[in-house]
Amino acid sequence: MSAVIRKIVTVVEEVHQEMGKAISPPTRRAAAVAVIENPFAGRYVEDLTPLIAIGEELGEMLAKRAVAALGIEGPAAHSYGKAAAVGSDGELEHAAAILHPKMGAPVRKVLGKGAALIPSSKKRGGVGCTLDIPLGHKDAAFVRSHFDGMEVQINDAPRANEIMVALAVTDSGRPLPRVGGLTVAEIKGDDGLR
User: What is the mean pLDDT of each run of 10 residues along the chain (194 residues)?
Assistant: First the structure.
């Protein structure tokens, strides 16, 4: 089953200044969001395999759109994260089926690696609800400068029978990081932690 997509929204955020200090180059985040029909809205279905396949399909498409929005090649991405919101006729397991079993592999392929788990969140919400997409470094979870998040909202989604699916990537960490931890220069990228 392929996703029935109503719309795709791509958002780019650049931070040029923080607490009166110039950020040069600016930190940048991009999120690509697909608003899709929920094929199981309003009913319980035991086998969620079709949603798992949709997650795999969306992983590649959304990753390509997010890195293109930043104007970088996939391997230049620093952080990633994913999120989904089901409309009122859906269940959280529908979001989980899209986000977890197979979405990660195509994202990692586009980004050229991705040893760390892809942070995720899921929720049920109505039209205009926000998605808080958690972010972490793609190759080393202990890089504190990249613990972050991106908030996105689409004014007319998700409708009751829809799911909003988002993937965010960055070309940097937070602006002005100073809470210690592993630095980008120290990443080994072998175990997804360091």
Answer: 94 97 96 98 97 98 98 97 98 98 97 95 97 96 95 98 98 94 87 87
**What was the pLDDT predicted at 188?**
87
Provide the whole-model pTM.
0.95
Which long-range contacts link 147-153 to residues 24+ away (Cβ below 8 Å)? Answer: 147/174, 148/29, 148/79, 148/173, 148/174, 149/81, 150/11, 150/13, 150/29, 150/31, 150/81, 152/9, 152/11, 152/31, 152/33, 153/128, 153/129
| CATH class label, 5-186 | alpha beta
- pLDDT score of 185: 87
